[in-house]
Amino acid sequence: DYLDILAISCDSFNEDINVLIGRGQGKKNHVENLQKLRKWCRDYKVAFKINSVINRFNVDEDMNEHIKALNPVRWKVFQCLLIEGENSGEAALREAERFLISNEEFEAFLERHQEVSCLVPESNQKMKDSYLILDEYVSIPHEL
Predict the structure, then answer these.
(1) pTM
(2) Do 60 and 17 meet the contact criterion of CB atoms below 8 Å apart?
(3) What CATH number is given to the structural domain containing 25?
(4) pLDDT digits over 61-89, tens only?
């Protein structure tokens, strides 16, 4: 009654790549879990969305077959983005520099997946101009 869309992160359908990018599931089968979640969404009439961050380790992957089989209402495809202090720089929680891809590599990924009708790409430039990213550890002055 209270849920209309469920967004699931899926950066790769290859478990070895998931391990490289820090999303390994151990003994769990990531694709089977996605299929189970997809079925639950159908059963309970909840829209199913997939978010993928395209990076150095998955940029050459062909996800067409898996995405088409899962048939999400939207597949949001993000280019790996550096955020100073969050995933880059000395105070970073993660070191994202090694995950970065060029704009050309991101475009090649999009080109390879152009037949997926629900694909919604978000390049770094588009993300920088459309999201407000707040850090829960930084206080905001009252003047704002």
Answers:
(1) 0.78
(2) no
(3) 3.20.20.70
(4) 999 999 999 999 999 999 987 755 444 44
DSSP 110-136: HHHTTT-TTEEEE-HHHHHHH-----T
Domain range spanning residue 44? 5-130
Whole-angstrom Cα Rg for the chain: 17
Residue 139 lies in a domain: no
**How many structural domains comprise the chain?**
1
Q: Is residue 141 part of a domain?
A: no
Residue 22 lies in a domain: yes
Range list of H helices, the chain: 15-20, 30-43, 64-70, 103-112, 124-130
- Identity of the residue numbered 132: L
